[in-house]
């Protein structure tokens, strides 16, 4: 028993160090009660005897005796539960008994404070919700005390002088509140510690998920080469590079003749052959762009040197048979090379590849003379068409529903731009939007979409979304127009701005100020096309996203492509952790919709629910 006292008194002197060990701290918080209050109760009993309160002295003597037995039993058995339950029961009942003996509330209400230790201790130590029962027991004893208090006052013969009662009042209140303070301090510490641990675990989980997602987003699932997203980032970061675009001639015939599975094996073997060929050269990176298109980037901007090396590679490939399922396949490759500025690298290499096909050669280097005349004619036609459509008010809006996956109802619509040509045909933005950007007509189209969206949705209660590019947000005239519309129409609580996530964001400060401004009105932010281009979770944090729209290229393959399913599940898990809702785009059938529901995606959008239409329901 003496050893036990020495051990826990030493712990009490090192309480700050003890907080680091939650198990020892839990044990100490229970055992210290009988160890300290037991001896103190003896002093209380002696004082009561001194003043002649013999009946009252029996109560603290009883507590001391049971506490010593508790400690002896714990030293023998280490049964912490027994000592906890016994002490909580004693602390609950004995103060009320002592108060009744001393004459009820009038003479000794301060003693009752000790009984409140029981529900407080239950909050700290119990794990199954028993704390409420201890509180109810305390309230029941209080009710009994109130009922018998008149009888106690009438029959009270307390020998305690007034001065002694005041001293007891001070000692009891001070000691009991100090005890409650340390119990609550123990409780708060452990809760904070548990929360901090959970937060760290969640943070590590999100970091790991982010790493996995980054790997998947930048790796081609079939060949394990770097993919289009990785290529886009590499182009943005690098300076003075040249690019070769390689395409397998008549690859569709291989698929038609042998099947797609065989075609996939051809692509895998071809990618391995390319990697082996590139090992003899320094400073080259290989990417799979998609289907049968591959890209080689050289850190050297010398297109002629790249041309010599690519010619060597093409000759090697044409002479090497690929063996698959007992079949030998000889491949012919056509390539286009460019060392234009990075924004034009891929388009100009593609022009060179088309020129090589027209000329019947294996390789062509891009030059201004290769620019396609029909493309120029097409651009001129659409610039004229867009200008006249703006003038004649032939730019209109279509609306596509966004379905709540839990309620299966459409209360939200995305606004989409369309152009009506002179013959009355509806033209999708695929034909004119990129040309509008190049010809500086895009921002005029953005203003029309904003104005017509507000005009349409002022007449109903639907939520609606407007697409904005980073350039739109950085344009002072467009943002001023948005703020004016928000003030005029008062629709901000129903408005969502969709920001295209695939664009590089260099001026986060200006974008962040815009988002802060519109959020102050009550608008929300969605990140469009998440999972492509510059996808990363840092954007979500900086852009204060309320919604993530998972890119359609991922959603379309989700029922048969495990990689797409895994990417979606990682995005959903991160979004839930950040309290962000997810929307699946390009939902084309019931199977995709059901898969999104299984993965926990909040909303769906696509032709399965309805194609874009010029009128709202």
Walk me through the structure.
There is one protein chain. This protein is α/β, with parallel strands linked by helices. The chain has 3 domains: 199 residues, no CATH class; 144 residues, Alpha-Beta Plaits (2-Layer Sandwich); 226 residues, Alpha-Beta Barrel (TIM Barrel). The chain has 24 helices and 16 strands. An 8-stranded mixed β-barrel has the order 8-9-11-12-13-14-15-16, surrounded by 4 helices. The chain has a 5-stranded mixed β-sheet with strand order 2-3-1-6-7, with helices on both faces. About 2% of the residues have low confidence.
Summarize this structure as a short list of keywords or feature phrases:
Alpha-Beta Plaits, 59% helix, TIM Barrel, 24 helices, 8-stranded mixed beta barrel, 617 residues, 5-stranded mixed sheet, alpha/beta
What topology emerges from the helices and strands here?
Elements: H1 2-13, H2 15-18, H3 22-50, H4 54-77, H5 80-101, H6 105-108, H7 117-125, H8 131-155, H9 162-217, H10 228-237, E1 242-248, H11 251-258, H12 260-278, E2 284-290, E3 293-298, H13 303-318, E4 322-324, E5 327-329, E6 333-338, H14 345-359, E7 363-365, H15 373-391, E8 395-404, E9 409-420, E10 426-427, H16 433-438, H17 442-457, E11 463-468, H18 470-474, H19 476-489, E12 495-500, H20 508-521, E13 524-530, H21 537-543, E14 547-550, H22 552-555, H23 562-577, E15 581-584, H24 590-599, E16 603-604
Helix pairs in contact: 1-3, 3-4, 3-5, 4-5, 5-7, 5-8, 7-8, 7-9, 9-23, 11-12, 17-19
């Amino acid at each position: 028993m003496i050893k036990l006292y020495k051990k826990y008194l030493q712990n009490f002197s090192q309480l700050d160090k003890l907080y680091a060990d939650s198990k020892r701290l839990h044990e100490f918080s229970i055992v210290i009660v009988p160890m300290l209050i037991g001896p103190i109760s003896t002093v209380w009993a002696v004082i009561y005897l001194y003043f002649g309160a013999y009946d009252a002295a029996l109560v603290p003597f009883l507590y001391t005796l049971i506490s010593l037995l508790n400690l002896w039993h714990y030293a023998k058995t280490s049964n912490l539960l027994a000592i906890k339950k016994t002490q909580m029961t004693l602390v609950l009942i004995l103060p009320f008994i002592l108060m009744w003996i001393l004459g009820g509330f009038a003479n000794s209400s301060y003693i009752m404070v000790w009984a409140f230790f029981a529900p407080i201790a239950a909050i700290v130590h119990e794990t199954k919700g028993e704390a409420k029962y201890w509180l109810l027991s305390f309230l029941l004893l209080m009710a009994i005390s109130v009922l018998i208090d008149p009888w106690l006052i009438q029959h009270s013969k307390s020998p305690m002088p007034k001065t002694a009662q005041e001293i007891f009042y001070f000692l009891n209140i001070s000691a009991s509140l100090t005890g409650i303070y340390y119990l609550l301090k123990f409780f708060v510490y452990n809760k904070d510690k548990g929360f901090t641990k959970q937060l760290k675990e969640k943070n590590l989980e999100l970091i790991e998920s982010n790493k996995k997602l980054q790997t998947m987003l930048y790796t081609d699932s079939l060949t394990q080469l770097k993919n289009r997203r990785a290529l886009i980032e590499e182009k943005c970061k690098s300076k003075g590079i040249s690019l070769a675009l390689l395409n397998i001639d008549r690859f569709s015939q291989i698929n038609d003749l042998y099947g797609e599975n065989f075609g996939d094996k051809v692509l895998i073997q071809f990618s391995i052959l390319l990697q082996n060929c590139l090992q003899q050269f320094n400073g080259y990176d290989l990417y799979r762009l998609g289907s049968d298109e591959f890209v080689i980037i050289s850190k050297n901007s010398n297109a002629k040197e790249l041309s010599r090396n690519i010619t060597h590679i093409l000759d090697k490939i044409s002479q090497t048979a690929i063996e698959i399922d007992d079949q030998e396949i000889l491949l012919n490759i056509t390539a286009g090379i460019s060392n234009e500025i990075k924004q034009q690298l891929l388009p100009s290499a593609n022009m060179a590849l088309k020129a090589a096909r027209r000329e019947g050669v294996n390789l062509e280097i891009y030059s201004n003379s290769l620019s396609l005349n029909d493309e120029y004619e097409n651009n001129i036609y659409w610039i004229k068409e867009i200008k006249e459509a703006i003038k004649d008010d032939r730019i209109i809006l279509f609306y596509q529903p966004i379905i709540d996956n839990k309620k299966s109802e459409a209360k939200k619509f995305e606004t989409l731009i369309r152009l009506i040509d002179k013959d009355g045909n509806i033209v999708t933005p695929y034909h004119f939007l990129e040309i509008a950007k190049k010809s500086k007509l895009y921002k005029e189209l953005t203003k029309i979409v904003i104005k017509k969206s507000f005009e349409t949705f002022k007449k109903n209660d639907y939520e609606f979304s407007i697409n904005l590019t980073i350039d739109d947000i950085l344009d002072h005239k467009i943002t001023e127009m948005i703020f004016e519309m928000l003030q005029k129409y008062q629709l901000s609580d129903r408005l969502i701005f969709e920001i295209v996530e695939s664009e590089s964001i260099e001026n986060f400060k200006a974008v962040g100020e815009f988002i802060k401004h519109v959020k102050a009105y009550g608008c929300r932010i969605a990140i469009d096309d998440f999972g492509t281009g510059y996808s990363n979770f840092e954007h979500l944090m900086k852009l204060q996203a309320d919604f993530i729209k998972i890119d359609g290229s991922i959603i379309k393959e989700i029922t048969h492509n495990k990689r797409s399913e895994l990417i979606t599940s990682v995005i959903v898990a991160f979004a839930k952790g950040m309290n962000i809702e997810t929307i699946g785009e390009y939902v084309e059938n019931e199977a995709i919709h059901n898969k999104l529901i299984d993965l926990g995606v909040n909303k769906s959008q696509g032709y399965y629910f309805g194609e874009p239409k010029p009128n709202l329901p």
